[in-house]
Amino acid sequence: MRHIGLQGVVVTPSRKDGGIDVISQGAAAQVKFHATPSGAPDIQALIGAALDFPSKLFYATEYTADAKAVAESRGVALFKMEPFGGVSPANLPALNLAPPPAPRARKWYEGQTLEEQVNRCLRWSDQITQYTQTAKISNSDRRARKQLEQRRAAMVSVSQAMDKLAMLDNPTYKASRRQRLVIEAESLLKGAARSLGILLK
């Protein structure tokens, strides 16, 4: 309730809630975290108990069709609770109360020029190559064989990434295809770094 901007949110005493679990300035809510869907009687009970509150909110794991119909007709905002703590609006009144979605996180390549993206891939390639050539090999034969195999596989990925970057010179490719090639090269280099256990910079 605080997350959607309600003020003065207070949990009511558990034994004397009168059918209301949480109140705030201008809103009352009932919460039912049950294995079975909440039905129309649950919604009607909240409506009766919260007559003095302009906004009525109901939180449950799921709702029956009748419960949704009653809530829609009476303007009760239904929110669905997920097992691991997520809460999402379940009808139009709830959508009207819910805050707008958070801005999408920018991907690393957004706002960069193609040249900057390519240079980043080249830097990663050099870092992976240097590691495979200079990092110590274990004294254990079994461990050493595994390390050498990991390094061979990593260098194959580096070679594939460089092949994709070389394709950027094709004049017939559109900007979207060039962007996709850079992303694919980046994915190959990240995979190589993960297999070697190194952090790319």
Write up this protein:
By secondary structure, the protein is an alpha/beta fold. It has two domains: 10-97, Trna Endonuclease, Chain: A, domain 1 (3-Layer(aba) Sandwich); 114-196. The protein is built from six helices and six strands.
Topology as a string of helices (H) and strands (E): EEEHEHEEHHHH
CATH topology of the largest domain: Trna Endonuclease, Chain: A, domain 1
Rg (CA only): 28 Å
Which class of secondary structure composition applies to the elements?
alpha/beta
Put simply, the count of helices is 6
Uncertain runs: none
In oligomeric terms, what are we looking at? single chain
Bulk shape: elongated
Distance between the termini: 41 Å
Q: Give the averaged pLDDT, no decimals.
A: 88
CATH architecture annotation name of the largest domain: 3-Layer(aba) Sandwich
CATH first level of the largest domain: Alpha Beta
> Considering DSSP H and I runs of 4 or more, what fraction of the residues is helical?
40-55%
Q: Supply the number of structural domains.
A: 2
Order of strands, widest sheet: 1-2-3-4-5-6
Using DSSP, what is the number of strands?
A: 6
- Main pleated-sheet profile: 6 strands, mixed
Query: What proportion strand?
Result: 5-15%
